[in-house]
Design a protein that fits this description.
- The protein is α+β, with helices and mostly antiparallel strands.
- The protein is 74% helix and 6% strand.
- The longest helix is centred in the middle third of the chain and has 123 residues.
- The two termini are 28 Å apart.
- Its EC number is 2.7.13.3.
- One of its GO terms (cellular component) is membrane.
- Keywords: ATP-binding, Coiled coil, Kinase, Membrane, Nucleotide-binding, Phosphoprotein, Signal, TPR repeat, Transferase, Transmembrane, Transmembrane helix, Two-component regulatory system.
Length: 647
Amino acid sequence: MKKLILSIFLIIYSFGCFSQSSATELDSLKTILKKQKKDQKFSTLIDISNIYARIDLDSSKLYANKAYKLSEKIGNDSLKIKALMFLGHTSWERGNYAEAITNFKKSLAISTVIKDTTTIADAYNGLGIVYSKLGNLNTSISYYFKTLKMYEKLNDSLGVGATYLNIAWDYRKLKEYTKSINYNNKSLEIYTNLKDSLHMAMVNNNIAGSLNELGDYEKSLKFSNISKLYFKKLQYERYTAYPITNIAISYDSLHNYNEAKKNYLKAIQLHTLNKEPYELAFLNNALANLNYNLKDYKKAALIGEEAFRFAEEVSAIEFMVSSSKTLARTYEKLNDFNQSNKYLKLYIKFNDSIISTEKLKAIAEIETKYQTEKKEKEILSQRANIAEKELHINQKNTQILGLVILAIVVAILGYLLFNQQKLKNKQLQKENELKEALIKIENQNKLQEQRLTISRDLHDNIGAQLTFIISSIDNLQYGFKITNEKLTNKLSSISEFTKETIYELRDTIWAMNKSEISMEDLQVRISNFIDKGKIAATGIDFNFNVDKSISEELKFTSVSGMNIYRIVQEAINNAVKYADAKTITVNFIKRAGTLKINIIDDGKGFDINITVFGNGLNNMKKRALEIGSNLHIETQIHEGTTITFEV
């Protein structure tokens, strides 16, 4: 299931963030606020707003508004832009994007006049975040690269790291995963060096999201839980909703729907508490899809409508696309084709607007422009350094000339000594290599002798004993004239099982007697097995096809060759016993650098989601893993079964 993963966006303010947020802190600050004079209250109001930003956005906005009104009374532009940045932050967190843009642009205008570079960068970053949420990605990335240039000028590592994180997220929206991973890694490197726990939490959450997109759900759960633990330790309780969302997605993709549903509902509860419609649009759509997969289409439609309403409320086009798609297919299942057609049209409309070639080109041009300017600055800096170095070189040329002759003499002597030592080292190396080669050959000979001894013992002792068992059973049947049908059948079954064991033993001895198995050996062995199958199962047509381009000289280790043979053998046995097949085909196909093997039957197939695998299938999977491969099973009821692996 392909899902879009939520990311966390935090604006990096020049005044920083508190590491704790508790009732004690708030009570203490409110007590201080009552005792302060008007001119002293601004910082305390901002501190209270900052603490509330983690737990109660309405209260955060209330105190940011008080700070802004106070800054207007005081007439201090520096205080005014700080309050506006907080108001912009609380606005976009609450999904009021128009208000957020207004606040950020007001802050940008004032900070440009007073030349406050840090706040200009922060305002660009805030605008980038809002436009990203609105789905206007070329505008958001344009703002991010403006932000990046300014933070780089300010040597603000924290700001650069946060901007890399935001750029990475937008590239993920555009499905430019390579660029996204590149910027995430840049961000992670910065926060690791700074030992910044808050942003490490954010990066771990983004890594978890990327792993979900790549299908590595177990690993994603690990990173999500690390992120969640960071946020809890920092007491950023409401931000735990983001890793909880990734945890829900992992469980959803692993078909653990109970755990997925529990985590979706927990994340929805947190985002509802903080009135965040953007995140609620995503989560409700994910929950609707979960109910769709559980075939509870009525509930899926109800929750899907809620997702579309939240997305429409904040004009989040990306989620209007995903929720309209969910609703279109859900109403189709409910046979409500009018509603299905309505949402299908909306899906096509919004999807066409979110990603286009022109947008991708514009975004690429923005990044190219940024990279070009950066390289030009680096070139100018390098030229200045080169000019300075040339000046120093000219001053030292006279001194160097005097040292050159001495250096040449020393170099010649050193060269002679070095060559002499090099020859000695080569001689010692050759001697050591020869010793190692002799030891290796001796060990290989001993190993081969042990193999032959073991195989002889298996053949002479166990083989003879098994043959004796068969002979004894036959003598029992014919010598004692047993009339009990059940006993006769049981003895025949034991005799047949013993014969099969002898065949298996011969295969094992065959593999043990070889240090390596050629393609020709393997082909002959499989052909012999198929010939026996034709005799035993007369109603089945067996085919064995090998690409002519596969060399008979292709070699496998004895272990690998035996594992390949056993997988093919088990697959054919299963098809004969359980599939009711008319045709069984084994194909050896050459691929670039690999050998693809598939076993196909046209039997009755089975439902892979409800069938419990027995020892045979599990052993086949284990053997595939032992040779560095994965066993793929494709089957449908009445459509036959295909088993594929590559070596």
